[in-house]
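debug: dumping io for the single-chain case to check the tokenizer round-trip. Nothing else runs in this session.
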Amino acid sequence: MNNSSLTLYLEINDFNFIFFVTENNDDNDFKINYKLITPLGGVENNRVSDLKIISEIIRENIFLIEKKFNHTFKEIILILENFDPKFINFTGFKKLNGSQIIRENITYILNTLKSCVDKTETKLNILHIFNSNYKLDKKKIDNLPIGLFGDFYSHELSFNLINKNDLKNLKNIFNDCNLKIKKIFLKSFIAGANISNNYLNTNTFFKIKIKQDISKIFYFENDSLKYEQSFKFGSNIIIKDILKITLLKKDIIEIMLNEITLDKNISENELIGENFFKDLPYRKIKKKLIYDISLARIEEILDVIIFKNINIDFYNKQSKFVFFEIENELHSKGLKAVFKETFQSNNYEVKFLDKFSDEKLLKTVNKLVHFGWKKEAIPTSHPKKSLLARFFEAVFD
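debug: decoded output
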């Protein structure tokens, strides 16, 4: 193993710190060499709450990893899922009066909008900037229109931001471990990029993930992450409803939902099989009852997340395509059809996704680190010129 090809990653999600060590060999094959999961500590309500705790956890685990590989890492790549990111979308304009768009026009808009965000959002730091929309004379254009002629150009940028103090705390933590943060990614951006790469001609969509006790939605438009929101409920709320009404045990409900399919075509008289009760006395419970309970709760869940969510009302007018994932496989089979029916009855097209694997996650991150993203915007800094330099520029340019 060539230690110089090793890369260290850390995912911070709702419940865990997950450390990964990956390797790129001479044939440029990418593989995960090591994975270490440890419970989350020092983070509460999506903020760094105890610097000492989080520092100790990270320092101890990095020490163990470096000892295992007999290698000292100098950099780390962070993947954040639970730091409550903020999203701002700004549009800049340029009057052309029939002239040609040049690169400097676009650079000026980008730097001006970034400067505006920096000045107004003093408690936030920018993580990602995306070129989300271009319009020339009110007509949408797929790519940067450098070289085209027109009268009026508008350029929309989407900014993803996190709390400035959280970023400072993270940098200090890794500085104490003699590690530089090479890059920080929002996990939702990585998921969106992965979907876009795997589903050609699909660059505008919603992605919803239902975990046991947490649900999340993000909106991707023109290959740009524009919005994300979390909810403190998940698939367990459906299980609890079934438990309340049927008085079945939770493990029976979970097994049942993994083995039966619930849909609107269930017969009124069809009963749950005796095999689910094992050593317990059999009770005649209609499948239709389980379906009705699940449907009622799923309709409420999706109303809050997407159908009647005022935060994404505008985006709902742009897209009705949803990529959907249920994290708990025990629930997925029985509830998939109910979710699908609910989406379709609200005029949404839904595509079910398998769980986002570690390999998919890190392969996408690796490509983003080395090659960037097609819609990511990078502001350019202009060094201040001396009085003499400005004089010669004015005379000879």
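debug: round-trip ok. Confidence is low (pLDDT under 50) at residues 381-397.
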